Amino acid sequence: MTSQTSAVVPQSADRSAAATQREEWWRGAVIYQVYPRSFADSDGDGIGDLPGIRERLPYLRRLGVDAVWLSPFYASPQADAGYDVADYRRVDPVFGTLDDARELLDEAHGLGLRVIVDLVPNHCSDQHEWFQQALREGPGSPMRERFHFRPGQGDDGELPPNDWQSVFGGSAWDRVTEPDGTPGEWYLHLFAPQQPDFDWQHETVREEFRSVLRFWLDLGVDGFRIDVAHGMVKAPGLPDVGGRTEVQLLDNRELPFFDQDGVHEIYHDWRAILDSYPGERIGVAEAWTSTVARSARYLRPGELHQAFNFSYLTTDWDADALRTVITDSLEAMAAVGAPATWVLSNHDVVRHSTRLSGGDAAVAVPRARAATLLMLGLPGSVYVYQGEELGLPEVTELPAGVRQDPAFFRGDGQSGLRDGCRVPLPWSGERAPYGFGPAGDGPSWLPQPESWAKLSVAAQTGDPDSTLEFYRSALAVRRAEPALGAGESVTWLDAPAGVLAFRRDADGGSVVCAVNVGGTPAVLPSYGRLLLASGPLAVDPDEAEVTLPADTGAWWAV
Ligand code: GLC
């Protein structure tokens, strides 16, 4: 037996202009999520910013992604890390200026990278001028109609209008003090109290967001990731949920404030706006739904382009469960002519190296790499969250004093663990902040673990065994092989228990992807020319068979 990790990287890993211009670029795109606070800090205040991102665009291009999604950088008091927007047309000074945004877009486009920005239409910040005016003008004022203000229940209106719970814990309603100093109406906030929900039945709200879309499209963005896309329309009369009402992030139960049919009208409207601009601008739904088929409804002809596949993200490392969710996803998306999407990590969930390994450090990186090869082998579009290409683990031991996730402070049984995946990236050097900021020993808004020196971009670059070089190879192979990337289906192959194996066919050739999700090595036929493996493989000398260790995946050209 010989041991092989073969990374036969095609020489032409570079994207050609034609490739990025190809029609429907988003069907097979790899989209990299930048969480601006934690990506790169250009001015040394400990918080990442737009100039920091700009400086690192060549890194993203070399990584081999097609597009970047930027989490919010708009004017915001940062009660929920920028998902509380006070002004949708301004850049928060902590992140830079509108000129910085413009330059970032231009430079990204010059490098062949598309840029998608976050849009937060379900709610704004309590510092948004409309909400401030609504507070000042009191009950019955037209400004209050743009939000969900209601009188309370009980003799003195001292009880919330219904039993809805906030995703961050506690009631979804807060009571205001009226201008005359008396306790008054309640307003709805599905998230933090600093995030009042808009009332999307109000035409002015709809018109405002059409204008916000145009503002950023005019600036040159390639699309929008739509925050809480399933939440804007509430069931008429705001009926009680009844029974167990606690709501969690990614909650997929049927609830009177999520996934109501009325939201689809909004996306028809927005699609017409997106299509009125040149160059295929896209809309991506962050929609928590009960099934992938419900997610597909956001992608029917005339609606949005993609939706995050949270069913996939929340599936355990289990071969049968993965095969089921993959099959269901491909079927549901094919039924509406939309690409499937695949995602393992984002700024709201425990990083997948930690999550999939159940905290067992010995298997964390091998399993995460195998999961990456599976994800990148599937037909459709893929989302990569910053730092997963470095194999970063979740930071589980942040002291309470440094935490900022509002869910952490709302308590009520909410996990509030989102800070652990938001720790700033390590770029270089031996000491924190590892090149995150300009100064050798400058601040970072969350502390980085000491063990991250060896995980920095500089430490991994050029090391063929590193996770970073593995991602670079995988993305290059995916780009070079016509059978990988966009597509609608896979052909499942017979494989030993615990192994997922499928073939993908294209005019230019076929690729087999096999991943050992089980706990023991599996013997497989050698399918063809090994393109890439996520870890060492034992290859039979006559090359008829290959042993795929546990938590390992591979691609072969056939
Ligand atoms: C989305 C975002 C999350 C945010 C919430 C409220 O789920 O991904 O970070 O807290 O919306 O805007």
Description:
Helices cover 26% and strands 17% of the residues. By secondary structure, it is an alpha/beta fold. An eight-stranded parallel β-sheet has the order 12-11-10-6-3-2-14-13. The chain has a five-stranded antiparallel β-sheet with strand order 15-16-17-22-19, with helices on one face. β8 and β9 (183-188) form a beta hairpin. The longest helix has 18 residues, at 319-336. The two termini are 22 Å apart. The relative contact order is 0.12. Mean pLDDT is 93; it is low at 6-22. Residues 80, 83, 120, 191, 227-228, 286, 347-348 line the site of alpha-D-glucopyranose.
Question: Number of helix segments?
Answer: 15
Characterize the largest beta sheet: strand count, sense, and whether it forms a barrel.
8 strands, parallel
- Give the class from helix and strand content and strand pairing: alpha/beta
Whole-Å distance between the termini? 22 Å
Helical amount among residues, as a percent range? 25-40%
Which small-molecule ligands are present, each listed once? alpha-D-glucopyranose
Oligomer: single chain
Strand content: 15-25%
Question: What is the approximate shape?
Answer: globular
Number of strands: 22
Strand order of the largest sheet: 12-11-10-6-3-2-14-13
Low-confidence stretches: 6-22
What's the average pLDDT? 93
What does the radius of gyration come to? 24 Å
InterPro entries: GH, GH13_cat_dom, O16G_dom_2
Organism: Streptantibioticus silvisoli
Protein name: Glycoside hydrolase family 13 protein
Keywords: Hydrolase
